[in-house]
Amino acid sequence: MLKAPDHQVAGHEAGLGKLGPLIDDSGRFYKPLQGDNRGSEEVAFYESFSSNTHIPEHIRKYFPMYYGTKIMKASTGVEHPHMVLQDLTSARVNPSVMDIKIGSRTWAPDASEAYIAKCLKKDRESTSIPLGFRLSGLQVYIDDESRFYKPDRNYIRKTGPDDVRLLLRKFVSSNPSADMEIGTGSGPGPDCSLASSVYGGPNGILAQLLELKAWFEDQTIYHFYACSFLFVYEKRLGLKGAWSNAEVKLIDFAHVTDANGVIDHNFLGGLCSLTKFISDILSEIEDCTGTNGQVEL
Amino acid sequence: MLKAPDHQVAGHEAGLGKLGPLIDDSGRFYKPLQGDNRGSEEVAFYESFSSNTHIPEHIRKYFPMYYGTKIMKASTGVEHPHMVLQDLTSARVNPSVMDIKIGSRTWAPDASEAYIAKCLKKDRESTSIPLGFRLSGLQVYIDDESRFYKPDRNYIRKTGPDDVRLLLRKFVSSNPSADMEIGTGSGPGPDCSLASSVYGGPNGILAQLLELKAWFEDQTIYHFYACSFLFVYEKRLGLKGAWSNAEVKLIDFAHVTDANGVIDHNFLGGLCSLTKFISDILSEIEDCTGTNGQVEL
Prior knowledge:
The structure is a homodimer. Chain A is α+β, with helices and mostly antiparallel strands. Chain A folds into two domains: 22-86, no CATH class; 95-289, 2-Layer Sandwich (D-amino Acid Aminotransferase, Chain A, domain 1), CATH 3.30.470.160. Helix content of chain A is 32%, strand content 21%. Chain A is built from ten helices and eleven strands. Chain A has helices at 38-51, 57-60, 113-125, 128-131, 153-157, 161-170, 195-198, 205-216, 235-239, 265-289; strands spanning 22-23, 28-32, 66-73, 79-86, 95-102, 133-143, 147-149, 222-224, 228-234, 247-251, 256-258. In chain A, strand 3 (66-73) and strand 4 form a beta hairpin. The A-B interface holds A 104-105, 109, 120, 124, 129-132, 161, 217-218, 220, 260-263, 265-266, 268-270, 272-273, 276 and B 104-105, 109, 120, 124, 129-132, 161, 217-218, 220, 260-263, 265-266, 268-270, 272-273, 276.
């Protein structure tokens, strides 16, 4: 019954002799505990978060459900401990998915010198330092024939600020393969035809990000280093003009630390930057078409 | 007519053979251009900012007035170019002053490797990394006899998160020399008697920080690295329960860069963190005394 997830866009992948996540057909996602403490740190976070009574209910929905840990046959064929989580794409037929790592700094202050040096290098080489976030992967559903636009990991690893701007547009376009030089405006660019239903509206991604922002301006419980947003929506629903079923989730908690009474200014900065990118797309749409997909800021 | 400023709490000080700022009796502050491009970078910022028509008027008031540059006899006795700025404490008799450097990162992405390494070390050793800001200096007026509480620079350099929390309270206390172990609540701590009039209220420091925050959530003109807030107030006015005349100004623009269409997530994160520290102080006051110095958040 277990298999590798169909819609994984980033992170370790299950394969021949390779440890990666598995899913079953009941909507559960089995994430193998990573070595060097990361697995146990992530379990510790989920246990703490599940039992923390200071997390408001309207915030809890942005986190995957957690069902404990289980020792089971891993993708490598041998027994290994796994976290049992909610499969965030199980209810979707052809989900468009984007994974965005938040924060200009992906290392916690108490990390080792070697780990800090490694992260700082990646943060500087990616858009984490200039933008406060970086893309880790995405897939955009096109149609039943072409299936998905899914740029390869080597391309994703090298994306600069202009690429990120373009990919945030492609994510909500019916022609995500269309390329356009940013700035020149030449050529048929991504049409952003789903922007107002996916990013905009009272239940869209921007509204969800703003709800999280309000919490991050106040919460002094956790600092989330190297944590990602997962954006998921179903094109079929978006195109009908109906509720796009766009969802924002937070994932990857191997580097969460105690906040010690201080807000997570590193995460909040990245969240505000991403929010601005998305509201800029909605403003442009509005300027062009007169439609109003944007929520009140 | 020129002399060293009376109320400087951080930065280079004019002295025998030492280059430092000077003031005159007409309310002007003469800042010598620093070497290694920093001086010319700061002049470039002031020139750009003065002529930029996209800066809203209600934001312009948070920046010192700029009157150009002037070659004049420096504190060292020899001719040197200076920026001519507004003296931010000239209208004050006994100003309480605090200088807070904003941002967990004080280096711009395009800085040299050597400069980045130097800044990163300071950011990690200070509270910049954990809190998103660090204290650079302060003086708190006590009375005409005791004059000022002004911790020395060696102490300021070593302040940790708990010290910062304490000093933010001392800054608005009539007994700033009183010490208290944070957390134990033992001993007579700083009384925070001026908190509601200096930090709180419709014209207080918190309200000003929130006005700046709204701009920083949107502005994609400049990134302000290693820039400071200067908080200034006059105790005489605060104690009478009148308008405290508390002012927030931004200073030190030697490391401002073009924003390239991205918000200054590094500055914004630090600003939000500082805002939370100050609103926490106001909440505690309110809990204790029932007075309401806090503005609507």
